[in-house]
Amino acid sequence: SPWKQLPDALDPRARHLVVQLRRLKDHRGLSLQALASRTGYSRSSWDRYLNGRVLHAADVDFHHEDVLFES
């Protein structure tokens, strides 16, 4: 399904991060549950991140982003 529009008030750095995470998720075909299992962040956290419901890019520490590239 298509992504929801991101909030207009979202910080540009956070917007960039969300767009990149969405692309990676889509490219890898991962579900929110798969992301949660691979990263230790909860499914609901991923839902918030991917829908722009974080205040700042700094609110999200994605030191596990490499798992999106793993097979």
DSSP helix fraction: 40-55%
What is the end-to-end distance?
23 Å
Largest sheet: none
Helix/strand structural class:
mainly alpha
Beta-strand residue percentage: under 5%
- The number of distinct helices, counting runs of at least 4 residues, comes to 3
Mean residue pLDDT: 80
Please give the number of β-strands: 0
Q: Which stretches of 5+ consecutive residues score pLDDT under 50?
A: none
Rg measurement, Å: 11 Å
Shape: globular
The quaternary state of the protein chains shown equals single chain
What does this entry look like structurally?
With 71 residues, the protein is an all-alpha fold. Helix content is 46%, strand content 0%. Helix 2 packs across helix 3. The model has no long low-confidence stretch (mean pLDDT 80).
Key phrases:
71 residues, mainly alpha, 3 helices
Would you summarize the structure shown here?
With 71 residues, the chain is mainly alpha-helical. It contains three helices and no strands.
Write the layout of secondary structure elements.
Elements: H1 12-28, H2 32-39, H3 43-50
Helix pairs in contact: 2-3
